[in-house]
Amino acid sequence: MYEGISAYEKASHLFTVHALTDFDIIEYCLKPLGNNYSMLGDYTSAANIVKGYLYLAGQQGNDEQRISAYINLSIIYHDTGQYQQAIQLLQQALTMSPVPAEKKMLMYYNLARNYVDLRELAKARRYVNLAASIYQQHLRSDALPTLVHVYTLHAAISLAEGQPTNALTWIEKAQTLAVSNAPLFKNRELAKLVNTHAGILMIGGRDHEAILRYHQALTWLIPQYDPMKNELPDAAAFYAENAIKETLDGMAEAYAKLNDPVKSLACYKLWFKAEDLLRDTYNYEEAKLTQQAENRNVTEKALELLYGLLEKTKDSRYAIEAFQFAERTKAVTLRESSEDRYWRQRQEQDTLVKTQNQLRYKQAMLASEIVTEQLKQGQADVVYIHQRIAQQTTNAVALKEIAQALEEKYPQRKLTDSFQPQVMRNLQRRLQTDRATVVEFFFGTRALYIFRVDQHSVQMSKVDASEMLKQNVLALRDFFANASAINNQIEQYKGLAFEIARALHLVEPFATSNIILVPDGVLSLIPFDALLYEKASGVTYENFPWLLRRYTIAYQPSALIYANAVSPPVALDKKSLLGVFPVFHNSALQLDYSIKEAGDIQNQTDGLFLFNEAATQQAFLKQAGQFRIIHLSTHASSGIDAAPPSIMFSDSTLYLPRIYGLNLKADLLVLSACETGVGVLVKGEGAISLAHGFQFSGIRNAIFSLWKVNDYSTAVLMGNFYRQYFASGNKAESLRLARQDYLNDETIDNTRKSPYYWAGFVYYGSLETQPVDTAFSQLLFLSLAAVLLSIFAIIYVLYKRRHKVGA
């Protein structure tokens, strides 16, 4: 299938470059290309292709291809969980006239599929019966595959109605029809039917039979596979195919039900091998994020098995393996980008790498232009948007070709695999150097798993009441919605802050005072510094037992990102700071304390500061690559409706898609603005926020906010932070001390010492201490030495005079 995609991509490119007109590009290229993308799970590429030929068919007045586009786009919406959008498209297509019988049959079938997943079973059965009736009226052989799908859907409806026996009858009917007309079906289609059959058998408790069915499915998919020789297939025979993953997932569940966790886990490991091959074919990060959510479901099942083995045997190897599984789904897109970026920086003179960098930047620019135009809603230029999507598609194909060429040129270049033994060794060596402990969470749908990793061991624990914990975390998050919430309900806050810390196993002291914290899901929405390690009494915030008082916390998207980001500390250069302060004077957006914030920083550095009208987006983009520290004090948004996260400059707004295309090398980014760490939560990846975008663009260490932070307290905190940082060179400890200085400040009243004011900023990055620029210290030493010499000289002269007089 992947080879077919490459051929179709090249054909589409040639058609566009040579402006051909005597070839039906929709029927013979774009439709199969979009369908193949969908089958691989690359739904972003598929949607772009389908929308492209929907537009083209409209331009040509080709209603038949428009109907095909509506059907195929509805399939993409269904497979990505957008059931209502899929139904709307299909119903719109049904209003077109005339609609060929086979197309109408497909529409009814796909409507039924969506209603099954919405659990509207009466509607589903109505439409599936309509689809079957069309076949009975026309009896066309080319509609047989759709009839098989109809029978399969009858089986799904029967299962949803609690009738597994009826479901089995329907799926066997579908299989019989398919096998007797095998030339009309691809091997993957026959394998998927067998997988469905096996799944129904498992529901009926016939697990041994199910495994035999899964073996049969693998023989359809992998010609080299022989279950008589080896029950499990050889990963070397895998290729990019979703059905292989589906089969392995089913086999794993069957083995688990038969109380064979070892074979089940082996299937899950093979599942990830198959997933890697699919991931390599995807053109867009969005498709990889969608895939990542699916990976989480598999990982949770593996963790459940491993925790059971750990409890049963007390063998710590199971805790290590579980941690490796958890890391397999932690910020994979960001980690992949990070490793790839640092590799490209070392190969920046390679012409392929240069071209790749240019194309990636163009892709980000196009994405930004599309978003900006779409925000105009009814006034948006549809032709303009279509043209840019077409350019994106062309660039994506070119990027894929470059990636293949680089892989051939540098075959040793691979993404770090968490299952490799050296990965754990590297991580634990890093923890020994930093005198730190990793605390990593996996927030599943059934349980929360907690990993504690230090230089010697890996410990695993489980919290079963995960839904209650999730509600508590969200309730705590609500306390930060406004400045008065905590002050008005201080006892409730204290109770939640302690209960959450207790549930997360953070109450008992750690062996180290430094913590690398890898949050997950809703846990990324709260500041752990503002939790309590024991119950607090009274109302004086300064005296509360905050985790802040006990630990220095540095967050990381994944433990592997932390372990891999090893480079010699660069001396802290106080002058290499870019400060951007739009301020927005005389407007509703005016930031009253931004000038104070800038002044406190200017007192400690001679960096470049852009104020007011000079703080433009263009000026920032021009200067950002030249500084080691970037400080942005402005307004930001976490994204509203269709608008992505954004950050404001004096002249314009910078949207997240363009940030992804930047190439920044700053050692520290401080986003002193509201909600810069907030965005749509994607399972495994975290919040798709401004902070995520800047991390993706090359920033390793960043400070950003979790809510709409207070203007005054931000100015004080930032002043405190830079004073500590320029003195010590340690970012994580400096933010901690800045908060403690704020809490200990006697000029700040108690109500403003609520964590709403001081806990809004979190630090993602390393624990390293940079050598502090000694130029100032040397000057101070020389000055003091000169003063002391002068004093000694004066004393000496006075002494000589005195003795001379005495003589």
UniProtKB/TrEMBL annotation:
Q: TPR repeats span which residues?
A: 67-100
Keyword terms of this UniProt record: Membrane, TPR repeat, Transmembrane, Transmembrane helix
- Is Iron there in the keyword field? no
The record's annotation in InterPro entries points to: CHAT_dom, TPR-like_helical_dom_sf, TPR_MalT, TPR_rpt
Q: Which residues form the MalT-like TPR region domain?
A: 33-184
Q: Does the keyword Ligase apply?
A: no
Pfam families (alphabetical): CHAT, TPR_MalT
Membrane-traversing stretches: 779-799
This chain's protein is named: CHAT domain-containing protein
What is the species of this protein?
Dawidia soli
